[in-house]
Design goal:
This protein is α+β, with helices and mostly antiparallel strands. It has 4 helices and 7 strands; from the N terminus they run E-H-H-E-E-E-H-E-H-E-E. It has one domain: Aminopeptidase. The longest helix has 17 residues.
Length: about 160
Amino acid sequence: MIHVRPAGPDDADALARLRAASMIELGYLAPAERNAFVPDAARDFVRLFANGTLLARVLSDGDAIIGTAGAVLFERLPYPGGTLHAEVSGVYVEPAHRGTGHAGRLVADVLADLRRTGVRKIFLRPSPRSRGLYARLGFVEDTTGVMNLPLVMPSPR
C-alpha cells in the first residue's frame, strides 16, 4: 500500500539514496560518485532534522521509501509577516511510480506543513520538467526562473 508520511532522522539513508538518484538524473552527480555521496548526504539529513531546518515527507510502498519532498527552513531579516522562509526542494519519485500524482501529493503535504509553521515566503527552483506541477499547486514563476507561492501577507504600514 502506497502512502505519504512525515520523514525523520530514521529515514536519512533512504533520503540520501533518493537524493543521489535525483541528482544523477538531473546531471548534478556522476553515477561513479554515488557511493561517496550517499553516506555524507545521510549525515547531512540527520543534522538538518536535528537542527529543525528540514521538513520532509516520504512516499512509501510497504517498507520501501520510493519518493520524497522536502523544504529547508531559514530566517531572513525582519519583514512584515515574519522572518521565516522555506525553499521546497528534493522532490523525487522513483521512475516506476511516476505519472500517478505522487509528486503533487508529496508537495501538497509539505506545503500544508509549511503553512502551519507560519512561513513568510515559500519558493523553489524548478527543473524544466516540473514547472507544470508547481504551477498547478499555485506557484508563480518570477523573472529569474524562481517560482514563489503567493501567501496572504499583512499590508506594509
